[in-house]
Amino acid sequence: MKFSITEIETKTGKSGATFYSATFREESEEGTETKATSFDLLDKKIGDVVEGELIKNGQYTNFKIHKEVKAGGFGGNSANIAKMQEKKNENINKIIDRKEDSFKVSATFRDATILTQTWSAKAPFPTSQEIEEKWVYFRRWLWEHYDMDITDTKAF
């Protein structure tokens, strides 16, 4: 049977063992609450849903967990799930944009370097200042024309 924890308190027994005194509400229409002790509630908190059984032992009631019931990473609320999916889609779009930008950066750096090498081979040996200026010129030109539609230009 499924129970939600409505109260929980950590206690220490005479032997020094740690146990938990908690109030469990049945996840049913009746929603009966029962106070019980358990050794299985480590890292549990109020509001957690657990599956187990209440075992009557004389004047005491013990709770034994069968397995934990996960409500989901978003509390099981469909509105929260929709918000998280929307945020995930935004993040994916950002990643795609950054990937395209990184292609543009690396391509213009590479091509500016190739054009500068070709230019410097045809000119008398240039100074480092001239090489830098020419490289910046080519890089800027490539950056501005990177997204140009190929049908806008006529090669011949």
Q: Any overview of this molecule?
A:
With 156 residues, this protein is α+β, with helices and mostly antiparallel strands. The chain folds into 2 domains: 67 residues; 71 residues. The protein is 40% helix and 28% strand. The protein has 2 helices and 5 strands, in the order E-E-E-E-E-H-H. A 5-stranded antiparallel sheet has the order 3-2-1-4-5, with no helix packed on it. A hairpin with a 5-residue loop joins strand 1 and strand 2. Helix 1 packs across helix 2. The longest helix has 45 residues. It is rod-shaped, with a radius of gyration of 34 Å. The mean pLDDT is 82.
Distance between the termini: 79 Å
**SS summary, helix count:** 2
**Contiguous runs where pLDDT drops below 50 for at least 5 residues:** none
**Beta strand %:** 25-35%
Radius of gyration, taken over Cα atoms and rounded to an integer in Å = 34 Å
* Main pleated-sheet profile: 5 strands, antiparallel
Q: Helicity range of the residues? A: 40-55%
Sequence of strands across the biggest β-sheet: 3-2-1-4-5
N-to-C series of helices and strands: EEEEEHH
Count the beta strands.
5
Mean pLDDT: 82
**What count of structural domains?**
2
Shape: rod-shaped
State the secondary-structure class: alpha+beta
